[in-house]
Amino acid sequence: MSIFLKGQPPLESKKGNSDLPLPVRHTLDNPADYITETGLTDAVDMAIILGQPLLLTGEAGTGKTLLAYVVGNELGLETYKFETKSTSAARDLFYLYDTVGRFQAKQTGNEGINPVDYLTYNALGKAILQTLKKDEVNDWLPQARKEEARSDQFTRDSRREADWQRRSIVLIDEIDKAPRDFPNDILNEIENMYFKIPELGNKSFVAAAALRPLVFITSNSEKHLPDAFLRRCIFYNIDFPKADIMKKIIERRVGRYVTDSKTFLNKAVGLFYELREPKAGLQKKPATAELLGWIIALKEMNKDQADPLSRVNEEKILSSLSVLIKNTEDIAQAKKAVVQWLRKN
């Protein structure tokens, strides 16, 4: 039976039901809870010393994206994220220009509007600009538009002079999603930390050497990156954590759900790794984030039990697999594996 759904409509219309629990998934990515292996910290050190981007590969759920925020949190640096898409062009990493809006302004006779105001700076553009003195770039920052006011706007009035000049971190997330030419098209810009804006007469900005941004790049290795791009990076592959490290990750991130039962922790990790084994026959192996969510779901569904993975809960355990397993064929395979596992445990 569902915890929240009773199979009947409410007696009267309800809005904003306060009885629903607060979602906890968004609390799992706290940089302070990140466990960093020695090889990874060494790779970060080398990237900082040499001023080269750190390219991170590895299975989904190994913490590639979160690392940039971990380093930013520890070093006191702001992190700007660029979410790579299949349509991303090299320019998008630095800025966007509202060509259509500018054209419409001209058509309606607003010739006096500053073309700079049609700029939106993106991750690496922001990071490079902030290495320079604000009076050097202020004329090239757009005026904030009241109708588009956002807390993340990067405009002439977005920050006081005293808070402006700083070093920051840029995260280029999932670069393998970008078109094939994207990595080659940003080679010189990332190596020399500069960019140009053709729409403003090729105005160029070069990062101050002492404040060069730190660049982190993630890839799920879905396609090969160009050799010329790889030569300019520090490379590190994050292996999927072994069971003993996974237990530490669980205790660090969702410890309150396992503190009352080491048996539950051991069982959850044991079953999780069994589902990742080739003999389980799954097309998509469950990852760390899915395991954490599954532990939370099992405990919330069985609050009165120290060990929700006991055999008497077989029906609930099988229904909870939608947290771990993400396609129809794998659900059937996983259910078989779980039933066999419960018979043995």
Shape: elongated
Strands ordered across the widest β-sheet: 2-5-8-1-9
Overall average pLDDT:
87
From the N-terminal CA to the C-terminal CA, the straight-line distance is 25 Å
Low-confidence stretches: none
CATH topology of the largest domain: Rossmann fold
- How many domains comprise the coordinates? 2
Query: CATH first level of the largest domain: which class?
Result: Alpha Beta
Please state the second-level CATH architecture of the largest domain.
Answer: 3-Layer(aba) Sandwich
Q: Rg to the nearest angstrom?
A: 25 Å
The CATH homologous superfamily of the largest domain is named P-loop containing nucleotide triphosphate hydrolases
The helix count comes to: 13
SSE series: HEHEEHEHHEHHEEEHEHHHHH
Characterize the largest beta sheet: strand count, sense, and whether it forms a barrel.
5 strands, parallel
Approximately what portion of the residues adopt beta-strand conformation? Answer: 5-15%
Helix content: 25-40%
Task: Please provide the count of β strands.
Answer: 9
